[in-house]
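User: Fold this; tokens only.

Assistant: Input:
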Amino acid sequence: MLDLFVTGADEYSDKIFVTAGLAGTMQSLGYSTGVYKPVETGAVEKNGFIQSHDLAFVKFVDPYIKTYFSYLLRNKLTPILAAAAEHTVIEKNIILSDFQKIQDVNECLIADGSFGLASPLSKNFLEEDMVKMLDLPLLLVVSAKAANINNILLTINHASETGINMRGAILSNYPQDCDDVNIKLMPRLIEEYTNTKVLGILPEFDRNLNPNDLITEILNGVDVEGVFNLRIAKLQM
């Protein structure tokens, strides 16, 4: 099984492009792939149904990727608040049960987080607790434009100190031509001040992009084998 949890260093990390891009890439390489969204906030109503905006984008990238969720919440708030607004309590046992049901039916399964590791889901249950409960390696997505190095280092080092298996980091929204020293040195600072490797650097995307372009950027800009800790024969050709 090639399982992974993707979280962001901040609310505006644009990690859905990484999640969907990695899923589309693995599906294109011949691995049956699923994306699991334990908790989605900001869900939208369409044709009488509540839908996950992020999972709809995953399907846009590749309709053959299987998608799953446990909680769809309309308010774009921290999960515990979004759930309370709908008189709902996010139950860790439901998330664990849902995850275990789908874990063995996908060769590659990517769980996509909410607002970050410190996001409260319910009482005494943060996103970092969910990562540990699901026992998944963690990929951190960092927006080069929105995040600051202090928060990035704190997030990575805290995750490592609490026993989370840090697989690596990917920088998103990285400008092609950049004179900002804070952005230019971000990959180097991450690797010098943590035990985490930067496994990819990606440009800024929008949701109207061509899915093939996203997959091409993933293949060219990300160490996919490093992300999944697997030697992939098709990438050696």
